[in-house]
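Before relying on records like the one below, remember that each one covers exactly one chain. Contacts with other chains, cofactors or solvent are not represented anywhere in the record.
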Amino acid sequence: MATTIFRAGMRYAAAALTLGAVLLTTGCSYDNPAETAKITPATNGINTVVGSIKLADMLILSHAADQPGRIIGTVFNASSKDATVTISGASGAPVSIPVKANGHTSLAQPPAMTLDPSGGAPGSMVTVRVSEDATGTSADVQLPVLNATLPEYESYMPAAPASGTPSPTQSGSTASAGTAGPSPSPTTTSPTTASPSPSPTP
């Protein structure tokens, strides 16, 4: 009887040790959500804050550094008054983006906000100056430059550059070499009607 009780006690002790090991290995994640449950949306642009303005998923779409670049992303205004966000490249005219108070502006909607030139080849980073007039804050921000390699951006790309250079128009005659131009009309001389000779005086 004593032997039976001893063996049962050993089994209970082994089960308790096994349960404790399981709790130790799972205790770290028991109260925490699994990493697979944390879904982070994939973005290609940058997210940053300038004054009362938040820039979300901002990037530039362009074919080349010397070609126009369309700015894509969303601009949020956290202030209680309307704001204008100005983005300036290294050269070319800046773009101005109006944003309502406590609102946002999606740059995927027309009109297109374009820097000309973009200032960077696809795959590079371009430094732009972002200014907002709600609080008078400005900052330099680096935006990635992408092209239509990702199909979701294809419909937002600026027009592709022309594939060929048109031939210069020659000044002067448009007649091809070796082709005679129209001959001038011959001058037509009207026949002269002779006046009748005066009758001899009798």
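Residues 2-6, 22-41, 165-202 have pLDDT under 50 and may be disordered.
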